[in-house]
Write a structure and sequence with these properties.
The chain has 356 residues and is an alpha+beta fold. It folds into 2 domains: 5-165, D-amino Acid Aminotransferase, Chain A, domain 1; 176-341, D-amino Acid Aminotransferase, Chain A, domain 2. It contains 7 helices and 18 strands. The protein has helices spanning 61-65, 88-101, 109-122, 198-213, 259-270, 282-290, 328-341, and strands spanning 5-6, 31-38, 42-50, 68-70, 73-77, 83-86, 134-143, 155-165, 176-180, 218-222, 230-233, 237-242, 245-249, 274-278, 294-301, 305-314, 317-320, 352-354. The strands form 2 sheets. Strands 1, 2, 3, 4, 5, 6, 7, 8 and 18 form a 9-stranded mixed β-sheet that branches. The longest helix has 16 residues, at 198-213. The chain is globular. 40% of the residues are buried. It binds pyridoxal-5'-phosphate (PLP). The site of pyridoxal-5'-phosphate has 14 residues, from helix 5 and strand 15.
Amino acid sequence: MAEIRIELTKNPKAKPADESNLGFGKIFTDHMFIMDYDTGMGWHDARIVPYGNIELSPAAMCLHYGQEVFEGLKAYRTSDGKIQLFRPQENFKRLNVSNERLVIPEIDVDFAVKALKELVEIEADWVPHTDGASLYIRPYIIAVDPFLGVRPGDKYLFMIILSPSGAYYSSGLNPVSIYVEQNYVRAVKGGMGFTKTGGNYAASLIGQNEAHKQNYSQVLWLDGVERKYIEEVGAMNIFFVIGDEVVTPSLQGSILSGITRKSVIELCNSWGLKVSERRISIDEIAEVYKNGMLKEVFGTGTAAVISPVGHLKWNDMVMEINDNKIGEISQRVYDTLTGIQYGKLEDTHGWITPVC
Ligand SMILES: *Cc1c(COP(=O)(O)O)cnc(C)c1O
Protein backbone atom coordinates (compact mmCIF):
# COMPACT_ATOMS: atom_id res chain seq x y z
CA MET A 1 0.00 0.00 0.00
CA ALA A 2 1.17 3.49 -0.85
CA GLU A 3 2.68 5.66 1.84
CA ILE A 4 0.79 8.72 3.02
CA ARG A 5 2.98 11.80 3.34
CA ILE A 6 2.06 13.94 6.31
CA GLU A 7 2.61 17.67 6.61
CA LEU A 8 1.24 19.12 9.83
CA THR A 9 0.01 22.68 10.11
CA LYS A 10 2.15 25.28 11.87
CA ASN A 11 -0.96 27.35 12.62
CA PRO A 12 -3.58 25.16 14.27
CA LYS A 13 -6.95 26.89 14.58
CA ALA A 14 -8.77 27.39 17.85
CA LYS A 15 -11.34 24.65 18.33
CA PRO A 16 -14.93 25.74 18.86
CA ALA A 17 -15.35 26.42 22.56
CA ASP A 18 -19.13 26.10 22.47
CA GLU A 19 -20.22 22.80 20.96
CA SER A 20 -23.88 23.67 21.31
CA ASN A 21 -24.01 25.76 18.16
CA LEU A 22 -21.66 23.91 15.82
CA GLY A 23 -24.40 23.55 13.25
CA PHE A 24 -23.59 21.43 10.23
CA GLY A 25 -20.73 21.70 7.75
CA LYS A 26 -19.67 25.23 8.60
CA ILE A 27 -16.25 24.82 10.17
CA PHE A 28 -13.39 22.64 9.04
CA THR A 29 -10.46 21.06 10.85
CA ASP A 30 -6.75 21.78 10.45
CA HIS A 31 -5.89 19.08 7.90
CA MET A 32 -7.23 17.36 4.81
CA PHE A 33 -6.38 14.32 2.74
CA ILE A 34 -5.54 14.64 -0.96
CA MET A 35 -4.49 12.14 -3.60
CA ASP A 36 -3.98 12.72 -7.34
CA TYR A 37 -4.89 10.58 -10.29
CA ASP A 38 -3.35 10.78 -13.70
CA THR A 39 -4.10 8.40 -16.54
CA GLY A 40 -1.06 6.16 -16.94
CA MET A 41 0.06 6.69 -13.33
CA GLY A 42 -3.06 5.74 -11.42
CA TRP A 43 -3.70 7.20 -7.96
CA HIS A 44 -0.54 8.71 -6.49
CA ASP A 45 0.88 11.22 -3.99
CA ALA A 46 -1.43 10.47 -1.10
CA ARG A 47 -0.91 13.16 1.50
CA ILE A 48 -2.39 14.74 4.59
CA VAL A 49 -1.73 18.48 4.48
CA PRO A 50 -2.94 21.65 6.21
CA TYR A 51 -6.56 22.44 5.34
CA GLY A 52 -6.77 25.24 2.80
CA ASN A 53 -7.95 26.37 -0.60
CA ILE A 54 -6.92 24.34 -3.60
CA GLU A 55 -5.92 25.69 -6.95
CA LEU A 56 -8.08 24.66 -9.90
CA SER A 57 -8.02 25.74 -13.52
CA PRO A 58 -11.13 27.76 -14.42
CA ALA A 59 -11.51 25.15 -17.14
CA ALA A 60 -11.43 22.20 -14.66
CA MET A 61 -13.84 19.63 -16.04
CA CYS A 62 -15.79 19.10 -12.80
CA LEU A 63 -16.87 22.75 -12.88
CA HIS A 64 -18.49 22.40 -16.29
CA TYR A 65 -19.90 18.91 -16.65
CA GLY A 66 -20.34 17.77 -13.08
CA GLN A 67 -17.99 14.80 -13.04
CA GLU A 68 -17.97 14.60 -9.26
CA VAL A 69 -18.84 12.03 -6.60
CA PHE A 70 -18.92 12.24 -2.82
CA GLU A 71 -19.61 10.41 0.42
CA GLY A 72 -20.72 11.32 3.92
CA LEU A 73 -19.99 9.57 7.20
CA LYS A 74 -19.07 10.46 10.77
CA ALA A 75 -16.49 9.86 13.50
CA TYR A 76 -17.97 9.48 16.98
CA ARG A 77 -16.41 9.99 20.40
CA THR A 78 -17.40 7.36 22.96
CA SER A 79 -17.97 8.13 26.63
CA ASP A 80 -14.56 6.65 27.48
CA GLY A 81 -12.87 9.02 25.03
CA LYS A 82 -12.25 6.62 22.14
CA ILE A 83 -12.96 7.63 18.55
CA GLN A 84 -14.70 5.33 16.11
CA LEU A 85 -16.22 5.12 12.63
CA PHE A 86 -19.46 3.43 11.56
CA ARG A 87 -19.12 1.05 8.56
CA PRO A 88 -16.56 3.18 6.67
CA GLN A 89 -15.80 0.37 4.18
CA GLU A 90 -19.43 0.64 3.02
CA ASN A 91 -18.95 4.31 2.19
CA PHE A 92 -15.84 3.73 0.10
CA LYS A 93 -17.45 0.74 -1.64
CA ARG A 94 -20.38 2.97 -2.50
CA LEU A 95 -17.98 5.66 -3.69
CA ASN A 96 -16.70 3.08 -6.18
CA VAL A 97 -20.28 2.36 -7.29
CA SER A 98 -20.68 6.08 -7.96
CA ASN A 99 -17.24 6.16 -9.63
CA GLU A 100 -18.18 3.41 -12.04
CA ARG A 101 -21.36 5.20 -13.16
CA LEU A 102 -19.57 8.52 -13.62
CA VAL A 103 -16.52 6.93 -15.30
CA ILE A 104 -14.18 7.98 -12.51
CA PRO A 105 -11.27 5.62 -11.69
CA GLU A 106 -11.84 3.21 -8.84
CA ILE A 107 -10.16 3.80 -5.49
CA ASP A 108 -8.69 1.14 -3.17
CA VAL A 109 -11.26 0.75 -0.37
CA ASP A 110 -8.80 -0.54 2.25
CA PHE A 111 -6.35 2.25 1.46
CA ALA A 112 -9.10 4.86 1.70
CA VAL A 113 -10.16 3.53 5.12
CA LYS A 114 -6.52 3.59 6.27
CA ALA A 115 -6.09 7.16 5.03
CA LEU A 116 -9.30 8.24 6.74
CA LYS A 117 -8.24 6.65 10.03
CA GLU A 118 -4.89 8.47 9.88
CA LEU A 119 -6.58 11.77 9.13
CA VAL A 120 -9.16 11.40 11.91
CA GLU A 121 -6.45 10.36 14.37
CA ILE A 122 -4.47 13.52 13.56
CA GLU A 123 -7.67 15.54 14.10
CA ALA A 124 -8.78 13.57 17.17
CA ASP A 125 -9.12 16.73 19.28
CA TRP A 126 -11.65 18.05 16.75
CA VAL A 127 -14.12 15.24 17.40
CA PRO A 128 -16.84 16.87 19.54
CA HIS A 129 -17.41 15.71 23.10
CA THR A 130 -21.12 16.54 23.34
CA ASP A 131 -23.59 13.69 23.12
CA GLY A 132 -25.08 13.56 19.63
CA ALA A 133 -22.38 15.76 18.08
CA SER A 134 -19.80 14.19 15.76
CA LEU A 135 -17.07 14.86 13.25
CA TYR A 136 -18.70 14.84 9.82
CA ILE A 137 -16.46 13.34 7.12
CA ARG A 138 -16.74 14.35 3.48
CA PRO A 139 -14.73 12.29 0.95
CA TYR A 140 -15.07 13.39 -2.69
CA ILE A 141 -13.52 13.06 -6.12
CA ILE A 142 -13.46 15.70 -8.84
CA ALA A 143 -12.21 15.71 -12.45
CA VAL A 144 -9.68 18.53 -12.77
CA ASP A 145 -8.34 18.43 -16.35
CA PRO A 146 -8.36 21.93 -17.85
CA PHE A 147 -10.47 21.00 -20.88
CA LEU A 148 -13.87 22.01 -22.19
CA GLY A 149 -14.55 18.93 -24.31
CA VAL A 150 -17.07 16.43 -23.00
CA ARG A 151 -15.26 13.24 -22.07
CA PRO A 152 -14.19 11.51 -18.85
CA GLY A 153 -11.25 13.21 -17.18
CA ASP A 154 -7.65 12.07 -17.19
CA LYS A 155 -6.83 13.90 -13.95
CA TYR A 156 -8.70 13.69 -10.66
CA LEU A 157 -8.38 14.73 -7.05
CA PHE A 158 -9.62 12.48 -4.25
CA MET A 159 -9.99 14.54 -1.10
CA ILE A 160 -11.33 14.12 2.43
CA ILE A 161 -12.31 17.10 4.58
CA LEU A 162 -13.69 17.05 8.13
CA SER A 163 -16.26 19.24 9.84
CA PRO A 164 -17.24 19.07 13.52
CA SER A 165 -21.02 19.12 13.55
CA GLY A 166 -23.60 19.55 16.25
CA ALA A 167 -26.28 17.19 17.46
CA TYR A 168 -28.97 16.93 14.79
CA TYR A 169 -31.62 16.85 17.45
CA SER A 170 -30.94 19.38 20.16
CA SER A 171 -34.36 18.97 21.73
CA GLY A 172 -35.39 15.34 21.21
CA LEU A 173 -36.48 13.64 18.01
CA ASN A 174 -39.06 16.04 16.68
CA PRO A 175 -41.04 14.68 13.75
CA VAL A 176 -40.64 16.49 10.43
CA SER A 177 -43.29 17.43 7.89
CA ILE A 178 -42.69 16.25 4.35
CA TYR A 179 -44.35 16.97 1.07
CA VAL A 180 -44.91 14.67 -1.91
CA GLU A 181 -43.43 16.40 -4.96
CA GLN A 182 -45.62 16.13 -8.05
CA ASN A 183 -43.97 18.37 -10.65
CA TYR A 184 -40.30 17.56 -10.48
CA VAL A 185 -38.41 14.30 -10.29
CA ARG A 186 -35.01 13.72 -8.74
CA ALA A 187 -33.75 10.80 -10.79
CA VAL A 188 -34.83 8.03 -13.12
CA LYS A 189 -33.73 4.45 -13.55
CA GLY A 190 -30.78 4.43 -15.93
CA GLY A 191 -29.69 7.85 -14.66
CA MET A 192 -27.54 8.61 -11.62
CA GLY A 193 -30.07 8.30 -8.79
CA PHE A 194 -28.21 5.39 -7.17
CA THR A 195 -24.97 7.40 -6.98
CA LYS A 196 -23.90 10.16 -4.63
CA THR A 197 -23.15 12.91 -7.07
CA GLY A 198 -23.69 16.65 -6.90
CA GLY A 199 -26.00 16.68 -9.93
CA ASN A 200 -28.70 14.76 -8.07
CA TYR A 201 -28.70 17.43 -5.40
CA ALA A 202 -28.78 20.23 -7.96
CA ALA A 203 -31.85 18.54 -9.48
CA SER A 204 -33.54 18.47 -6.09
CA LEU A 205 -33.12 22.10 -5.03
CA ILE A 206 -36.20 23.47 -6.78
CA GLY A 207 -38.47 20.91 -5.12
CA GLN A 208 -36.87 21.70 -1.80
CA ASN A 209 -37.64 25.40 -2.28
CA GLU A 210 -41.23 24.61 -3.15
CA ALA A 211 -41.59 22.49 -0.01
CA HIS A 212 -40.15 25.27 2.16
CA LYS A 213 -42.62 27.76 0.69
CA GLN A 214 -45.40 25.51 1.89
CA ASN A 215 -43.77 25.10 5.31
CA TYR A 216 -42.64 21.56 4.75
CA SER A 217 -39.06 20.71 5.61
CA GLN A 218 -38.32 18.11 2.95
CA VAL A 219 -39.54 16.57 -0.28
CA LEU A 220 -40.67 13.00 -0.79
CA TRP A 221 -39.81 12.05 -4.37
CA LEU A 222 -41.92 9.83 -6.54
CA ASP A 223 -40.55 7.70 -9.40
CA GLY A 224 -39.85 9.61 -12.58
CA VAL A 225 -41.76 7.34 -14.95
CA GLU A 226 -45.19 6.66 -13.49
CA ARG A 227 -45.02 9.39 -10.83
CA LYS A 228 -46.61 6.92 -8.51
CA TYR A 229 -44.05 4.92 -6.57
CA ILE A 230 -42.26 6.31 -3.54
CA GLU A 231 -38.52 6.74 -3.93
CA GLU A 232 -36.79 8.65 -1.13
CA VAL A 233 -36.49 11.95 0.71
CA GLY A 234 -33.76 14.34 -0.50
CA ALA A 235 -30.88 12.93 1.48
CA MET A 236 -32.68 10.16 3.31
CA ASN A 237 -34.24 6.83 2.52
CA ILE A 238 -37.78 6.26 3.76
CA PHE A 239 -39.46 3.55 5.82
CA PHE A 240 -43.13 2.89 6.59
CA VAL A 241 -44.55 0.69 9.32
CA ILE A 242 -47.77 -0.71 7.88
CA GLY A 243 -49.54 -2.88 10.44
CA ASP A 244 -46.66 -5.00 11.74
CA GLU A 245 -44.65 -4.86 8.53
CA VAL A 246 -41.62 -2.57 8.08
CA VAL A 247 -41.54 -1.52 4.42
CA THR A 248 -39.04 0.47 2.38
CA PRO A 249 -38.84 1.07 -1.38
CA SER A 250 -36.68 -1.51 -3.17
CA LEU A 251 -33.48 -0.29 -4.85
CA GLN A 252 -34.49 0.05 -8.49
CA GLY A 253 -31.57 2.13 -9.77
CA SER A 254 -32.98 5.55 -9.01
CA ILE A 255 -32.69 5.41 -5.20
CA LEU A 256 -29.53 5.78 -3.17
CA SER A 257 -28.53 2.65 -1.29
CA GLY A 258 -28.22 4.19 2.16
CA ILE A 259 -25.93 2.61 4.72
CA THR A 260 -28.37 3.65 7.44
CA ARG A 261 -31.16 2.02 5.36
CA LYS A 262 -29.14 -1.18 5.13
CA SER A 263 -28.38 -1.10 8.87
CA VAL A 264 -32.06 -0.53 9.75
CA ILE A 265 -33.08 -3.51 7.60
CA GLU A 266 -30.44 -5.67 9.27
CA LEU A 267 -31.51 -4.55 12.75
CA CYS A 268 -35.23 -5.11 12.11
CA ASN A 269 -34.48 -8.54 10.69
CA SER A 270 -32.37 -9.39 13.74
CA TRP A 271 -35.33 -8.43 15.96
CA GLY A 272 -37.60 -10.80 14.09
CA LEU A 273 -39.69 -8.03 12.54
CA LYS A 274 -41.22 -8.54 9.13
CA VAL A 275 -39.21 -6.35 6.71
CA SER A 276 -40.02 -5.90 3.02
CA GLU A 277 -38.14 -4.08 0.28
CA ARG A 278 -40.70 -3.53 -2.43
CA ARG A 279 -42.42 -0.94 -4.56
CA ILE A 280 -44.82 1.22 -2.56
CA SER A 281 -47.24 3.53 -4.33
CA ILE A 282 -48.38 6.77 -2.79
CA ASP A 283 -51.96 5.52 -3.28
CA GLU A 284 -51.18 2.53 -1.09
CA ILE A 285 -49.86 4.83 1.64
CA ALA A 286 -52.99 7.00 1.46
CA GLU A 287 -55.11 3.83 1.60
CA VAL A 288 -53.38 2.31 4.65
CA TYR A 289 -53.47 5.72 6.31
CA LYS A 290 -57.25 5.87 5.89
CA ASN A 291 -57.53 2.33 7.25
CA GLY A 292 -55.52 3.21 10.32
CA MET A 293 -52.76 0.78 9.31
CA LEU A 294 -50.02 3.38 8.78
CA LYS A 295 -48.29 3.26 12.14
CA GLU A 296 -44.96 4.98 11.57
CA VAL A 297 -43.00 6.78 8.87
CA PHE A 298 -39.31 7.62 9.22
CA GLY A 299 -36.39 8.75 7.10
CA THR A 300 -32.91 7.24 7.47
CA GLY A 301 -29.55 8.82 6.71
CA THR A 302 -26.16 9.48 8.27
CA ALA A 303 -26.95 13.08 9.27
CA ALA A 304 -30.11 12.49 11.31
CA VAL A 305 -29.84 8.68 11.69
CA ILE A 306 -33.63 8.46 12.04
CA SER A 307 -36.00 11.29 11.22
CA PRO A 308 -39.58 10.57 12.24
CA VAL A 309 -42.19 11.94 9.85
CA GLY A 310 -45.13 13.58 11.61
CA HIS A 311 -46.96 14.99 8.61
CA LEU A 312 -47.02 13.78 5.03
CA LYS A 313 -48.75 15.96 2.46
CA TRP A 314 -49.96 14.57 -0.86
CA ASN A 315 -52.10 16.89 -2.98
CA ASP A 316 -54.74 18.17 -0.59
CA MET A 317 -54.37 15.32 1.82
CA VAL A 318 -52.29 15.85 4.96
CA MET A 319 -51.62 12.62 6.81
CA GLU A 320 -50.75 12.96 10.46
CA ILE A 321 -48.67 9.97 11.47
CA ASN A 322 -48.79 8.52 15.00
CA ASP A 323 -50.22 11.79 16.42
CA ASN A 324 -47.09 13.58 15.20
CA LYS A 325 -45.00 11.63 17.71
CA ILE A 326 -42.05 9.31 17.21
CA GLY A 327 -43.14 5.67 16.92
CA GLU A 328 -41.92 2.66 18.87
CA ILE A 329 -39.90 1.07 16.07
CA SER A 330 -38.41 4.42 14.98
CA GLN A 331 -37.28 5.07 18.56
CA ARG A 332 -35.85 1.58 18.99
CA VAL A 333 -33.89 1.80 15.74
CA TYR A 334 -32.61 5.27 16.67
CA ASP A 335 -31.54 4.21 20.17
CA THR A 336 -29.81 1.11 18.88
CA LEU A 337 -27.92 2.74 16.02
CA THR A 338 -26.78 5.74 18.04
CA GLY A 339 -26.00 3.42 20.97
CA ILE A 340 -23.62 1.44 18.76
CA GLN A 341 -22.16 4.55 17.11
CA TYR A 342 -21.37 6.22 20.45
CA GLY A 343 -20.11 3.00 22.03
CA LYS A 344 -22.93 2.71 24.59
CA LEU A 345 -24.16 -0.58 23.14
CA GLU A 346 -22.12 -3.61 22.19
CA ASP A 347 -21.33 -3.77 18.48
CA THR A 348 -22.75 -7.22 17.82
CA HIS A 349 -22.94 -6.63 14.04
CA GLY A 350 -19.26 -5.74 13.49
CA TRP A 351 -20.12 -2.24 12.30
CA ILE A 352 -17.51 -0.26 14.24
CA THR A 353 -13.99 0.59 13.05
CA PRO A 354 -11.93 1.97 15.94
CA VAL A 355 -9.64 4.91 15.16
CA CYS A 356 -7.88 5.63 18.43
C1 LIG B 1 -26.50 9.97 1.37
C2 LIG B 1 -27.88 9.80 0.92
C3 LIG B 1 -28.81 9.00 1.62
C4 LIG B 1 -28.50 8.36 2.94
O1 LIG B 1 -27.45 7.44 2.88
P1 LIG B 1 -26.69 7.03 4.22
O2 LIG B 1 -25.61 6.12 3.74
O3 LIG B 1 -27.67 6.33 5.08
O4 LIG B 1 -26.19 8.28 4.84
C5 LIG B 1 -30.06 8.84 1.06
N1 LIG B 1 -30.42 9.44 -0.08
C6 LIG B 1 -29.56 10.22 -0.78
C7 LIG B 1 -30.00 10.83 -2.04
C8 LIG B 1 -28.28 10.43 -0.30
O5 LIG B 1 -27.43 11.21 -0.98
